[in-house]
Structures are given as C-alpha cells and as structure tokens.
Amino acid sequence: MSEVLELAESVLSGSSSTGTDLDAALWRALEETGLARLTLAEAAGGSGASFADAAEVLQATGAHAARVPLVETDLLAGWLLHSHGIAVPDGPLTAVAADGDTLTRVAWAREVAGIVVLTPSEVLLLTVDGLEITAGANLAEEPRDTVTRPEVVAARADLAPGAAAEFRLRAALGRAQLLAGAARGALARTVRYAGERVQFGRPIGKFQAVQQQLALAASEVAASGAAASAAAATADRDGFGAPSTAFAVAAAKARTGEAAGEVARIAHQVHGAIGFTREHDLRLLTTRLWAWRDEDGSDAQWQAELGATVLAAGAEALWPLVTGTP
Amino acid sequence: MTSTLSRLPALVPPPTELPPRAAALRAEVRAFLAEERAAGAWSPRADVWLSGWDERFTRELGRRGWLGMTIPVEYGGHGLGALDRYVVTEELLAAGAPVAAHWVADRQIGPTLMRFGTEEQRRRYLPRIAAGECYFGIGMSEPDAGSDLAAVRTKAVQVDGGWELTGTKVWTSGAHHAHAFFALARSAPKDDANRHAGLSQFIVDLDSPGVQIRPIPLLTGAHHFNEVVFDRVFIPDAQVLGELGGGWAQVTGELAFERSGPERFLSTFPLLTALLGELTGVSGTEREVGRIVSRLWTLRRMSLAVAGSLESGEAPELAAAVVKDLGTRFENEIVDAARTLVAIPPDPGAESGFARLLADAVLHAPGFTLRGGTNEVLRGIVARGMGLR
After folding, report:
1. Where is the Acyl-CoA dehydrogenase/oxidase C-terminal domain (chain A) (predicted)?
2. Which of A58, A81, B369, B385 is the most buried (most CB within 10 A)?
C-alpha cells in the first residue's frame, strides 16, 4: 500500500456514510492531512501531488462512500481558481459549468464555502452569502442543488483557452475514480456477506453459482480500477491538452460506468432482500454507483464521443489510438 | 463505513508505463509489417496464433531479433525484458500477422527452459527457437483430462537410461509441423490424497520412434489440432524437464504468463479493424464502437499491468485469470458487433477481407473461452483468491 493510500485509509476508516450532509469531521481530517487539496499546486495551499496519487485517494473515498466534495474542491474548483489567478478560499468548494443565471444540479452547493462557475467566457467565484439555494439530490441522496446567481460575484477572470475542455475531462476523471472505488467497496461487502450468510446449511459463498457471480463482479471491479488508474497515469504523463488523455478519460468513464451497473446488480442479487432495504448499508455504495455513472457524462455519452473519434480517424488509426502511439 | 477493503486481494496490479525505448521498437515493427503487407506476403487473419503458420515469416522475425527476446544473449536470445516482448507481440497480433509457427516456443518453451531446463537442454533448443527455426507444441490435455489436468494418464515408466512414455495427448496445436513438445505425464502412481503429486514433464522430440500424430480438424475444416499417441516412446534422462514429480508446480507456475498476454483479447482484433472500414458513412454506430473500444483499451491496460508485474518478478495469477476471462469474452463481443453493425454475411470461401475474417472468427470463437483454462475454471480461481473456497 502506498503512503498516500495508507494515510487516506486511516482518515477514511473513521468516516460515517449515513446521512446526506457533508461529513464535517472527515473533511477536517482531510484538510489537516493535506488530502483535501492533494493535486492543487503548493503555491495555492495544495500538496502538488500527481493524479496517480489522487486516483488512489479518490478510489478509497468511493469505496468508503465518504460524504465529502473532494473531486469538486481539489480537481475542479481549486484548479479553476488557481489557474485563473484567483486566490483559493478555505473550506470545501464546488464548481459547475453553466451558461445563465440559474445553476442546476450543483454538487454540494448548500455545504460549501464557495462556488466556482465556468461560463462560456469567464470563471466566477461566488461566496455563499446571499445565494438562493434550492435543495436537490441525486440517487445517492448527495446534494445536487439549484443556485440562483447573485448580482455581485467575489472574483472573476477571463476564461483561459482550453480550460472548458479540461474542466470536463477532470470532472469525468474524478468521477471515474469514485466509481471504481464504490465498485470495489460493494464487492468487498458482498464477498464478506456471502461468507457469513448461511442457507441450505452452508455459507452461500460456498455455492458455485454464487462464486461464479462474484468472480464476474470481481472482473468488472478489476476493469473499473484499471481503467480509472490508467487514465490518471495518462493525465500525469501527457497532460489534459493531449488527445491521448482525452481518449483515456473517455474510455475510463465509459468503462467504469458500464461496470457500475453490473457490480451493483450482482451485489444486490447476492445480498438478497436485506440489501434492498433502507436499513442495510449496501445501498450507500450501490446508489452511488447508479448516481455517479450518469454524472459528468454517462457511459453512453462517453462511448458515443469515443466512437466518433475512432470513426473519424479511420480503421488504420484504431490501433495507434488504443496504444496511444500515433 | 467500516472497511473490509483490506480483505479483498489486489485484483489488478498498478498501471504500467512502457519504457521510452518501446516507441522506437514499436515503430520498427510497424514499418516491417507495413512492408510485408504491401508486398502481399500475407493478409490479416483472425486467431493468427492458432491458425497462421508461416515459417518464412517466423524466420524473418528471428532474423530481426523479435523472437526469444527475453532469453539471455548467451543462449542466442536478446536479453531484453517482458515489456519489450509485449510491444512486439501486440503489434504482430493487432496486424493479424501469421505468428503460429513460433507462438508456443516463444511464449512458453523459452521462459520455461530458462527456469527449469538443464544447461544441455537450453543449448539444444534456445538458439534455434530465437532464430525462428525450432517449433514446439504443448502436450497437456488428454481425452479424459481437460479442465481437470491432474487426471492425466499418460504414463512414464523408468527404464535403463531414461523413461518410456505411453498415452495419448489431444488438441495439440501444430504438432504435425513441430519439432518437439513438452509432455505432462504420470511418473509415479496416483495418490488420491495428493492428486498433483507424481506428475513430471518430459521434452519429447516428435520424430521419436513410437510417436504417431493424427489430425483433428477444427470447425473450419482446417488442420491445426492433433492427437499425439505415444507407444513406449523412449525419453532419455537428459530430456526430463525440471524436477521429477514437480510437473504440476512447473505447469501451473507459468499460467500468469500464459493467461494475461495480448493474445487473450486480440484474437479477433483484425475483424474489428475490418469492421471499422465497413462503417465509413454508416450512421448511428458511434456508441457501440465506443463501447467496444473502451473495453479494448481497458483490457490492454490490464494486460500491460500484469506484464509489468511479471517483469518485476511477481506472479499475479489472480489478475491473469481476470484478464483472460474478460479478454476472451471480449473477443466474442467483437464478433457480435461485426454481425450486428453491418449486414455482410460471413464467407469462409473469401480470400480475405471482412467476410472472411468474420467467418473465421465465428468458427474459431468457441475456442477462445476454452483454451488455457475455461472461463468457469478461471472464475473458480478468482473466487478462491477472494477467500470463498
């Protein structure tokens, strides 16, 4: 286990996933350990870590179903502000790409210290005083709020070239890590349950039919983790402006989204009726799998984008694209 | 949330990046393949590592230093790493080049001789394998021992100066062209308490007296498989491979190599390339193409991660089983996509092109999820790895 993952695990093991508000104690611990702003430049109060490191932390965050806006604060809002010369405020942050006065489905809006808005021409920082926020939620009951833009903004800057495209890729890359983690968490719980639940005089995990299903789920979890981690490694190596990174992120979000449904399906099938009730914690992972696969571009959307890229490049370019070597 | 994560084994190693020198090697291989194709030396085929037997091509690869790449220089090899070999292998497979003649020798025999072979055995075979002049088969399966390999009944009886082999091996690819093969045989009586004990590996020269080779045609009618019958075939002591009685450990120790390579998801890749050619101007296929490509990209990254892990001396058997299960199902997914996205029926009589690739892929597909361990057996390995068995 890498050092950063060990640190993340030690912090996250104290987290609680039930509830719909931000886990304030966990957030404080993430702030204190430098994990809350892991990839943000040191000059902006971050740790200056790689996306590979962030991938490990975010996958662990997903596996614990932790209630913190890590992707939003570090990968999106922090980066947008710092790269546009705006000082990054303390506390949890969120970011949204929007055109118009009403911002919809803003992640964690009611819980954060600042909202960064990426408009077609500007980056804006909204502080939360005087904002009109209407609570909304995703399938996992995480805040996805509607916000009315105020007259006065705390800071603004002209949008840098390429920033909108990078924002989209960063959001999908971060979401892919969370998905991979939640899939792993769901599998871990399900394997444990199959070892404990006895029917027909044996733990159900002893039945071949159940073992085959769990192995199928394991292969999806493996694919999910491999895709998310490889996309992070590609972003580290080539940067977000490179076609190879755009390709890798699209493939990773498509693959993790596809795996999410399969892993959730098998997790519920093995858990039986108890997992289908609100009193059981399985839902904390499976509802996140269902919610996150459709956020920041669904698998269908990223598949279509990837397919369009491949078809435009032509048959002979397929293998060079897949290997990232023109 | 209380964590059970630590109790799940690592299902896939961390990502592997290829060394910087890989780019030049890859460019060289691509240029060579383009030349060959321009000259009409061969046309891309599906499942080339089973069906593409071309000794001229194999010798040419040997001449260029692309066989026995990981074998030390003193044995005629090139002393390179698993990742160098990976680059060459994936380029050959993606192009649908005829790699069957050297496939088994290059993938399994070379590394196994380096691991378990005697000095004499290494000197006898390795230089010719690296030159592309010596071809091998693998003699594991028998009529009554398939997935349950420990049930092999081929018997090795000790005689003066060596052993006598009697029994039957089946599904032996390329035995009718090969010079030799590794035979797994029972050298000590079966012990029901330990079914894996008493098995040994022997290097059998296929022109030995008492060896009979009979064709077993595939669904296509093509002759790649064989039945190999031994009738008291004499094997000198010098041709015992590794430890007497250690056959099981030797055979299963190689599985991570055998199960995780690019051949476990690229068997039908030439069909996918041909399919894209047919989709020019066809609308509404982006999503399905993207789905296939995202799965392909992921599999390649998984397979590379295992290769990197093997390079650093680990044996990620669980990850290899996962790659092979996902990969061989993916090979079938390409066939389904080809059938559903365009309306061109398979044509086994076509010389080349989409219809021929589709015909071969459909008829070869059952083998993908069988060879080298069925997907059900692989999932059993994964279940055991997760502590369920």
Report:
1. 179-288
2. A58
* Strand A102-107 versus strand A144-148 pairing type: antiparallel
Exactly one of B258, B263, B317, B331 is catalytic; which is it?
B258
Q: Is the dihedral of CA A51, A57, A62, A63 positive or negative?
A: positive
Give the distance from residue A135's alpha carbon to the nearest chain B alpha carbon, in angstroms.
Answer: 25
Structure tokens at B11: 């299902």
CA distance B201 to B183: 6
Distance between CA atoms of residues B55 and B32, nearest Å = 16
In this prediction, residue B4 carries a pLDDT of: 47
**Strands (DSSP E) found in chain A:** 93-97, 102-107, 114-118, 122-127, 132-134, 144-148, 155-158, 198-199, 202-203
Is residue B259 within 8 A of residue B321, CB to CB? The reply is yes
**Residues in B touching A232 (Cβ below 8 Å):** 15
Q: Pick from B266, B273, B297, B329 the residue to mutate for testing the A interface (most A CBs within 10 Å).
A: B297
Q: Which residues of A touch B300 (CB under 8 A)?
A: 322-323
Q: Which amino acid is at A117?
A: V
Asked if the Cβ–Cβ distance from B382 to A215 is below 8 Å, we say yes
**B325 contact A CB<8A:** yes
Chain A hits for B322, Cβ within 8 Å: 218-219, 222
Residues 6+ apart with CB under 8 A from B123: B75
d(CA B134, CA B139): 16
Q: Assign A230 a pLDDT band (cuts: 50, 70, 90).
A: very high
Asked if B301 and A230 come within 8 Å (Cβ–Cβ), the reply is yes
Mean pLDDT of B98-113: 96
Q: Which residues on B lie below 8 Å from A190 (Cβ)?
A: none
- Tell me if residue B258 is catalytic: yes
Which of B375, B96, B376, B377 is CA-nearest to residue B262?
A: B96
Place of tokens 């090899």: B77
CB A122 within 8 A of CB A156: yes
Chain A with chain B: Cβ pairs closer than 8 A: 195
Q: Å from B299 to nearest chain A CA?
A: 7
Whole-number pLDDT of residue B364: 97
Give percent of chain B above pLDDT 70.
Answer: 98
pLDDT digits (tens, 9 = 90+) for A12-44: 998 876 888 999 999 999 999 999 999 999 999
SS (H, E, C) A14-58: CCCCCCCCCCHHHHHHHHHHCCCCCCCCHHHCCCCCCHHHHHHHH
Alpha-carbon distance A309 to nearest alpha carbon in chain B (angstroms): 9
Question: Tell me: the pLDDT tens digits for A260-275?
Answer: 999 999 999 999 999 9
Q: Is B294 left (phi over 0), alpha (psi -120 to 50) or beta?
A: alpha
- CA–CA min distance A137, chain B (Å): 21
CB B45 within 8 A of CB B351: no
Of the candidates B386, B368, B369, B378, the one whose C-alpha atom is nearest the C-alpha of residue B50 is B368
End-to-end, the C-alpha distance of chain A in Å comes to: 34
Exposed / middle / buried, residue A199 (Cβ in 10 Å: 0-12, 13-18, 19+) = exposed
User: Which residues 6+ apart lie within 8 Å of A210 measured at CB?
Assistant: A194, A204, A270, B388
